[in-house]
Amino acid sequence: MPVRYNSVAMAFHWTIALLLIANIALGLYMSDLPRSDPGKFAIFQIHKSIGLTVLVLSLLRLAWRLANPAPPLPHSMHPAAKRVARFTHYVFYLLIIFIPLTGWLMVSASSLGNGTDYFGLFTWPNLSFWAGDTRAQQHAAHETFESAHVFLAWSAIVLVPIHVAAALYHHILLKDDVLRRMLPFTGTEEVL
Asked: Which of 5, 8, 100, 185 sits in a 20 to 30 Å window from 123, CA-based?
């Protein structure tokens, strides 16, 4: 069993973390912009592009994680703390997949029919589930997915600082290797 995450897992973790935080900040910023703002459409396209990138990377990360087990938590951790840590990681996997997925579903259900201009490279298509629906049906689906998207994003806004605080708690107060095993270019001692 490995004592630290491998470089692929670390790359997924830090890339997704940075993109998620950037997109949350962008989402909060753009939600306050008036409809008349000339840059709002471009900001939405960037937000959607980052979200779709997070979705793809998260699915790849999940596949990698299923094939490459995580290092065990320190033996010194209380069993209840281990359960909380595992639960939190499962919730993070759900969030990093379902936040962008509900965003894609929300955009796809929109009666506007705009695809996503993926970083100016190509148009990412919408899902076609609502192609034959009435405008009212599309609006109802759009509202449902928007509510889910916002709820999940706020869940991440709450969970990210808790996750960071827990990592720092382990590193600074407990002085164990929980944080270092996810940091590149650091060694960890094997805990038996």
From this structure: 8
